[in-house]
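hey m, so remember when u said the tokens were messed up on ur end? i reran from scratch. heres the input so u can diff it against urs
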Amino acid sequence: MISKKSLYTKTGTLLWALAALFAVLPSWPHIYYRVNTNTSQNLANTIASTVNSQTLQDSVSPIPTAQPTPTGQQPVPEPTTNLPRVDPTLPADNGLIIESIGVKSVLHEGDDWQNILRKGIWRVPDFATPLSSDNKPIILAAHRWGYLDWSAAFRKLNSFYNLPKLKEGDKIQIIWEQRQFEYEVYSVKTGTEIPEYNADLILYTCQLWNSPVRFFVLANRIK
């Protein structure tokens, strides 16, 4: 028969073990990164290779070609793009703001994704900007946990650490050439490839530190 004292001791030990486990879990990615020093660089490689240009060509809806106007009929005017006005009070640097998860970061451009992902959020080249007139999406990628030398404050502002917390209806802002564009999330998915390319804006990051699975956030422009 187990005594009350022994039962209390075992229960207390179990509770302390569970408390220690839950305390360590949030820090586990950082411990893993410290033990496996190449993890961040390996993930940068996989982040850069997530976008599949051939899939894009097969997925996006083609832009309709202009049809000749029959003789005697007035041409139908082309729709105009409703751009936000230039606001000189906005930052000169292009940036991303997601208030619901605390992101406020400069958008980095270029093909040198290895160094760019170390700095923060990368706009994938060969895809759209907010001013593009084609039907390609804007695609933004970033690390989730990043690098050991990132502070917690830098990670919150400049990574997609909290991207999985986004939900349908959340708003995303892009400052581009001192114009403020606003997008609304309509889908949050996981997978190894971008699920569709018909969104106006696609954001993605790693689900785990050693997995090819990604979090994808799809949004359309509303302003």
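this time it looks ok to me. The chain has two domains: 1-35, 38-57+84-221. if urs says something different then somethings off w ur setup not the seq
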